[in-house]
Amino acid sequence: FNSLNHDMTLAEFKFIWYMEYSHRMWGRVVGLAYILPAAYFWRRGWLSRPLKGCVLALCGLVCFQGLLGWYMVKSGLEEKPDSYDIPRVSQYRLAAHLGSALVLYSASLWTGLSLLLPRHKLPETHQLLRLRQYAHGTTALIFLTALSGAFVAGLDAGLVYNSFPKMGERWIPDDLLAFSPVLRNIFENPTTVQFDHRILGIASVTAVTALYLFSRKIPLPRRTRMAVTSLLAIACMQ
């Protein structure tokens, strides 16, 4: 209010406050929805030894995610007397919070599907190994693209250029490497952050498309084909 939103009304403040409050409450409900059944299953002896390790790891991730969320929000409430910029949370902490959420979600989904759907016994052919390696590489690229999106959000970098495929009148903006040292541009220069996110987004869609085309040449189970096709559809929609 002191730095930027001098005209904010009490009703407008309440809207933001309730959004934050509901997000925290929802996070706590998610934690309880995981921890309470896990404790019940553990007590009843329904978990195997390897599964107990997974349960403990996921429980740790749930708690870590909440702690990281508090640490992120704290950065937006700190006084910065030498800065006249718009108050915002640290883009580094925002990316860490999003990254840990993606890891938690993916690990939970992987664990659940591993229990619900037994693994296919497929011959370890050269093509199948290549497909698996390429799928893992594509996963890493998508994860990196999502993290770069957190930097875009944290720096409001999406407001710098709103034209595509060019950024303004140029393919490569003039201020791409305006900060010194050069490495700082990747994480703190809004123009560079948006440019990187665009490149990573295009690369992700290209990688998913290539993965789909490559999978068409290999005899795969129906479930796997559905997964690859769904991945392509979601990538195009995104």
Automatic annotation (TrEMBL):
<keyword id="KW-0812">Transmembrane</keyword>
<keyword id="KW-1133">Transmembrane helix</keyword>
<keyword id="KW-0408">Iron</keyword>
<comment type="pathway">
    <text>Porphyrin-containing compound metabolism; heme A biosynthesis; heme A from heme O: step 1/1.</text>
</comment>
<keyword id="KW-0560">Oxidoreductase</keyword>
<keyword id="KW-0479">Metal-binding</keyword>
<feature type="transmembrane region" description="Helical">
    <location>
        <begin position="25"/>
        <end position="42"/>
    </location>
</feature>
<feature type="transmembrane region" description="Helical">
    <location>
        <begin position="54"/>
        <end position="73"/>
    </location>
</feature>
<dbReference type="InterPro" id="IPR023754">
    <property type="entry name" value="HemeA_Synthase_type2"/>
</dbReference>
<feature type="transmembrane region" description="Helical">
    <location>
        <begin position="93"/>
        <end position="117"/>
    </location>
</feature>
<keyword id="KW-0350">Heme biosynthesis</keyword>
<dbReference type="GO" id="GO:0046872">
    <property type="term" value="F:metal ion binding"/>
</dbReference>
<dbReference type="Pfam" id="PF02628">
    <property type="entry name" value="COX15-CtaA"/>
</dbReference>
<dbReference type="GO" id="GO:0005743">
    <property type="term" value="C:mitochondrial inner membrane"/>
</dbReference>
<dbReference type="GO" id="GO:0016653">
    <property type="term" value="F:oxidoreductase activity, acting on NAD(P)H, heme protein as acceptor"/>
</dbReference>
<keyword id="KW-0472">Membrane</keyword>
<feature type="transmembrane region" description="Helical">
    <location>
        <begin position="138"/>
        <end position="161"/>
    </location>
</feature>
<dbReference type="GO" id="GO:0120547">
    <property type="term" value="F:heme A synthase activity"/>
</dbReference>
<dbReference type="InterPro" id="IPR003780">
    <property type="entry name" value="COX15/CtaA_fam"/>
</dbReference>
<feature type="transmembrane region" description="Helical">
    <location>
        <begin position="197"/>
        <end position="215"/>
    </location>
</feature>
<dbReference type="GO" id="GO:0006784">
    <property type="term" value="P:heme A biosynthetic process"/>
</dbReference>
<protein>
    <submittedName>
        <fullName>COX15 protein</fullName>
    </submittedName>
</protein>
